[in-house]
Amino acid sequence: MSQRLVNWFKFASPATFYPLAGKAWPWFAALGTAFAAVGLWISFFVAPTDFQQGEGYRIIFIHVPASWMSMFIYCVMALWAAIGITFNTRLSGMMSSALAPTGALFAFISLWTGALWGKPMWGAWWVWDARLTSELILLFLYLGYIALTAAIDDPRRADKAGAIVSLVGVVNVPIIYFSVKWWNTLHQGASVSMTKAPTMATTMLWGMLIMALAFWMYSIAIALYRVRAIILERERHATWVAELPEMQA
Amino acid sequence: MLRAHGLACVRGDRRLFSDVDFSVSAGEWLQVEGANGAGKTSLLRIVAGLAHAEDGHLEWEGQPVDTVRDEFNARLLYLGHAPAIKDDLSALENLRTAAAVAGRPLDEATALAALRRIGLKGREDLPTRVLSQGQKRRVALARLLCSQARLWILDEPFVALDVAAVALLCSILDEHLARGGMLMFTSHQAVQLAGSGASLRLS
Amino acid sequence: MNAFIAIVRRDLLLAARRKSEVFTALFFFMIVASLFPLGIGAETSLLRRIAPGVLWVAALLAAMLSLNRMFAADHQDGTLEQMALSPTPLALLVSGKVFAHWLTSGLPLVLLAPVLGLQFDLSPRSLGILMISLLLGTPLLSLIGAIGAALTLGVRGGGVLLSLLVLPLYIPALIFGAGAVEADMAGLGAGGHLSLLGALLALAAFFAPWAATAALRIALE
C-alpha cells in the first residue's frame, strides 16, 4: 500500500510530470479527434431527422456533452483542490488552473448552443430554464476562479486561494441548482426541458456518448498541454528545466 | 527553549535563506541581522507561525511546534511592523481589547500603569489617531509590560523611538530576560542588553 | 468564548466611532429600492409584485458594500496577525467578526426593510414575512461574504473581484428569501422557503468561518 502511495507522489512532482504529460497529450488529442469524427458522423448522417424539431435538434450532440463536461470539470478541479490542500502538492494547483479555462469554455459552449437550440424550439434566445440558469451561474463560478487566481501575483498563494474557491463552489453548485429548480417551478417558467425531448433514440444516445468521449479526450489533452506551459513558467529557475532538450536549443 | 533546524524561506522566485539553525534558551536573546531584503522579517514570521518555512523545522520545549501550537501561541508575544493599533480607539482601549482578543483580559489599573511607565501619561484616553508615530509605537510597546509571555518576537522594536524611549525599552527587555524570558528581535542599531545573547546574520 | 465577545465588542465600538460607514450602506439600500418605481412606473399592483425581489436585491447589494472592509483594516494594521497568533482558534474570532459585521450591516437592513416595503404597498403580513426572511438571510450573506472578503484580501482590484466571487453564491439566499414573500403573497405559505433558508444558514454558520479562516491564513503568508 505504502509502495503505491510513494509511486503516486513521484508523479506529483512537476519535474516528473512534465515529460509524462508531454508524452501523453498527443495520444489524447488523437483519440479526441477520432471520437469527434465518429461522433459528428453519427450526429449528422446516421441519426434520423426529428419529426418535430427537424434538423435543428442536432445541436444537442454538442450541447448536452458540453454541459456534462462543464459540470464534470468543475468537480475535477475541486478534487484537485482537495488533494492540494490535503497533501500540499504543487501539481494540484497547476492542474486546477489548467482545467479552469476549458471548463469555462464548455460552460460557454453549452450556453451558446442552448441559445441556438432555444430559438427555433421556444422562439426565444434565452429562457430562464433551470438548467440554463444553473449553467450560467456555473460560468460565473469559473470566471470568479479565473479572475481571482489571475489577480494574485504569487502563484502558490493563487493556487491555495483558488483551491478554496473551487471547494466552496462545489459545495454550492448542488444548492444553487436545487434553488434555481425550486424557483423555476414556483414561477411556472419554461416547461420544455431538454431531456423531455421526444423519446431518445439509441443512435442519438450513442452519438452523444461518443461526443462526450471526444470532449473528454480533448479536455485531458488540452489540460496536459496547458499544465506543461504552467510548469515551465513556474519552474523556470529550476535546474531540471534548464537541462530540458527543448531549452538547450 | 526554542530551537530551529535548517530553516529555509523562498519568496517568489528568490531563496531568501536556507539552513538557518539557532536556539534560544531561558534568559537568552537572539538578534537577527542582515541587509534589507535578507529575510529578517520572514524569519521572525516563520518562527511565530505566521508563515511557512520552505524547509526545516522548529521545536518548542523539545517538541515540534506544530504539535503544540496552542501552547506555543499562549507563550508567545509577537510585535510586527504593523503595530496592530486601531486609530479610532484610545491607547487604553487598544491595550485592553488587544489583551482580551489574545485571551488574557487586562484590568484597567494594570493597563493604566503600563501606559504611564511607557510615557503616555495624560494621553491614555485620546484616540491614537492624534498621537505621533513614536507615541503610537509606545502604545504597541506597552503590550510588553502587560505580557506574561515567555517568548518575545519583536520586529524592529527600536524604530521611531527617541533616545529616552530606547533606553526604556532596553530596560524592559532586560527585565524580561532577568525573569527567564526569551527574546528574538531584529534591529539595525547595536543594542546593549543584559544576559547572554547571540546574533544571527542572514546573508 | 471570552475572546469571541471581546472581538464583537471591539468591532461594535469601532463601528460606533465610524457611524458614517453604517449609514452609507443604509442610504444605499434606500436609494436603490427607490429607483425601481421611478424606472418601472408607480402602478401599485406591479410594485407589489416586484417588491420582494427588488428589496432583496437591494439588501444584497447593500450588504456587499461593507464586505471588503470586514478584514481589510485588520489586515493593514496588523491586528489580523495578532488574531492568528491568539491561543483562541482563529475560526472562533472570525465568527465574532462575522457576527459583528451582521450586527452593523445586516440587522439595520432588516429593521429598515419594512419601511421601504411600505413604498411598494406591501401588506403588513408580507412585511412581516419580508423581515423574517431578511433576518434569516442577512447573516447568511455576511457568512458567505466573509469567505470572499478573506480571499480577496490585499488582492489587486479586490472590490470588484469580491462581487464576482460572492454574488453567484448569494443566489440561493435571494431565491429563497424573495421566494418566501412571493409564496406567501400567492397564498402558498412561506414555511418551506423559510426553513430552507434556515437550513442554509445553519450550514453556512458551520462551514463558512472555517473556509474564511483558511483564506485568511493564505492572505497572511
Please give a structural write-up.
The complex is a heterotrimer of chains A (249), B (203) and C (221). Chain A has 249 residues and is mostly helical. Chain A has helices at residues 2-11, 14-46, 60-87, 90-122, 130-151, 155-186, 202-234, 239-242, 245-248. In chain A, helix 2 packs antiparallel against helix 7. With 203 residues, chain B is α/β, with parallel strands linked by helices. Chain B has a domain at 1-75 and 151-157 and 187-203: P-loop containing nucleotide triphosphate hydrolases (Rossmann fold, 3-Layer(aba) Sandwich). Chain B starts with a strand and ends with a strand. Chain C is built from 9 helices and no strands. The two termini of chain C are 26 Å apart. Chain C has one domain. Chains in contact: A-C, B-C. The interface between A and C is medium-sized, with 29 and 30 residues.
Question: Number of DSSP strands of chain A?
Answer: 0
Question: If helices are DSSP runs of H or I spanning 4 or more residues, what is the number of helices of chain A?
Answer: 9
Largest interface: A-C, 29 and 30 residues
Radius of gyration over C-alpha positions of chain A, nearest whole angstrom: 20 Å
Instruction: Write down the overall geometry of chain A.
Output: globular
- What string, H for helix and E for strand, traces the elements of chain A in order? HHHHHHHHH
Coarse structural class of chain A: mainly alpha
The level of helicity of chain C is: over 70%
Tell me the span between the first and last alpha carbons of chain A: 42 Å
Assembly state: heterotrimer
Number of strands of chain C: 0
**Class derived from helix and strand content of chain C:** mainly alpha
How many discrete domains of chain C?
1
